[in-house]
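@here heads up, posting the sequence + SMILES for the flavin mononucleotide run so it's all in one place. Ping me if the SMILES looks off, I pulled it from an old spreadsheet.
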Amino acid sequence: MEKKLLVGITGASGAPYAVAFLRLLKELSVTSEVVISRAGEEVLKHETGLSVEELSELTSRVYREDEISAPPASGSAPYRGMVIVPCTMGTLSAIAQGAARNLLQRAADVMLKERKPLVLVVRETPFNLIHLRNMLSAAEAGAVIYPAMPAFYHRPKDLREMVEFFVRRLAEFLGLEVRNLKRWEGL
Ligand SMILES: Cc1cc2nc3c(=O)[nH]c(=O)nc-3n(C[C@H](O)[C@H](O)[C@H](O)COP(=O)(O)O)c2cc1C
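bot reply: prediction finished. Complex structure tokens:
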């Protein structure tokens, strides 16, 4: 059975991470499918200039949030796991409370019930107490909180390098074999 990775894209700032991550999955020959929220579509356009149609060239399939009867809604769909990149506080809250109101949130809920990996690349600053509690609840239910916090120790020359390093570490975290990752070798 083919095991695709499901990528959720919500309306948090950080759409360039989603695009770079999908490009990397393609480079690694990992099949992906995308579920994008309505806010995700808007922020994607604003931050990257890409439409959903253009995004669909980087993945096998793009589902809109209202396609509630699509395969990601069911635990029987053959996904190896799901990464939500970037993940809003709103979607985090829906996941943490088990209150799925669209296909993206339902797919995340399914990952938790099926005990499959669910990685949330949350983005907000600063966090309020509700955000912190929701992150704790989601982590207790099995999700991994993987904040969009860029590193500097690899000395990125520009934003592209910063984003690229982040998504390569994310892919490696998911167990994918990533080449050309600058590793820390001590001072
Ligand atoms: C340009 C822009 C940037 C945003 N950045 C964030 C963010 O970093 N984190 C967040 O939680 N919400 C952010 N929002 C707000 C969400 O898009 C909004 O709460 C939306 O309803 C979330 O819906 P979704 O979780 O279904 O994508 C941003 C909105 C816009 C327009």
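MO: The pocket of flavin mononucleotide is lined by residues 10-13, 37, 39-40, 43, 46, 88-91, 123-124 (CB under 6 Å).
MO: One more: The longest strand covers residues 79-87.
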